[in-house]
Amino acid sequence: MMKRSGSTAWSRVLTIACLLAGAFPASISLAQDAPVPREFFDARRHSGDRIRYCLNMSSALAEFDREVGRQVAGALFLESEFFEVKVPSTPYPLDYRIDITDDDLFIFMNKRCDAFLGFSISPDDTPEWVTPTRPYHSTRFRLAFAKTGAKSLADLPPASPVGAVMGSSADAAYRIWLSNAGSLPLRRLPYPDNQLLIERLRDGSLAAALLWEPAVYLATGGKPEAAGLFLFGDIPFPVGSVDLGIAVRPNEAFLRTQLDSAIESLVKDGTIEKLKAKFGLPASSGK
């Protein structure tokens, strides 16, 4: 999930309007309940011979995303161009999130690029002026142990510490599960990022961890077990996947359709799986 601020206040929208004055045509109509004036995203920016991507450089998957962008553009017989989105804050280690506000995202989407690569597809956290494609990379959380012989949370002694990245869907699901367990059989220890979570699992501070699977592979060069980390998928409560796609503006319906078709083609012909292997990422579940 991209870390963004809450609903944009009208005063902030007016500030953006001043900053972007002259960049868009005069308004024809305004959706009654739209939080952003419709004319801000009515102007078509896509150029015919290339796709201009915004690339989330805070993501641990940035170079994988870049190559996916190249392949998608190539499948459409287009050139690819990248604007690297960097933020002044320190990126979350071994993560896909980016610390930007909705205002920042809005400006990037209207001033810098046709499409935003590595966009976390979350229906509950997507502004109305962004439309994501189908995912090109669906990732999941795994239950991880470090040389304990355990294969599930049920194998752990009562009150064993289990970690998760605070704010992640895995942490939220784990917290709810513990609250419904009654006797609180295990302890919840939230950590700020995947890197520290992996370190604490390996040094024995944690009995288990709920980890974003690509983080484990990136931290171990694609060989978790060789590094003493053992992954299992039998988490006793539902945890949503992290689906990454390409975000476009709502008026770019044709571009989105073309991107969806290209992604589908690259998934079917095995290109995406080959890229995962190239960058040391786990294969899709079930493969």
Counting DSSP E segments of at least 2 residues, the number of strands comes to 11
Structural class: alpha/beta
Helix content: 25-40%
Count of helix runs: 8
Beta-strand portion reads 15-25%
Order of helices and strands: HEHEHEEEEEHEHEHEEHH
**What is the CATH third-level topology name of the largest domain?**
D-Maltodextrin-Binding Protein, domain 2
Distance between the termini: 25 Å
Instruction: Characterize the largest beta sheet: strand count, sense, and whether it forms a barrel.
Output: 6 strands, mixed
Instruction: Report the C-alpha radius of gyration, rounded.
Output: 21 Å
CATH architecture heading of the largest domain: 3-Layer(aba) Sandwich
CATH superfamily of the largest domain: Periplasmic binding protein-like II
Write a compact overview of the structure shown.
The chain has 287 residues and is of the alpha/beta class.
Structure, described:
This protein has 287 residues and is α/β, with parallel strands linked by helices. The protein folds into 2 domains: 15-139 and 242-278, Periplasmic binding protein-like II (D-Maltodextrin-Binding Protein, domain 2, 3-Layer(aba) Sandwich); 141-232, D-Maltodextrin-Binding Protein, domain 2, CATH 3.40.190. 30% of the residues lie in helices and 20% in strands. The chain contains 8 helices and 11 strands. α2 (62-75) crosses α7 and α2 packs antiparallel against α8. It is elongated. It starts with 9 loop residues before the first helix and ends in a 9-residue tail after the last helix. The model is unreliable at 4-34 and 37-44 (pLDDT under 50).
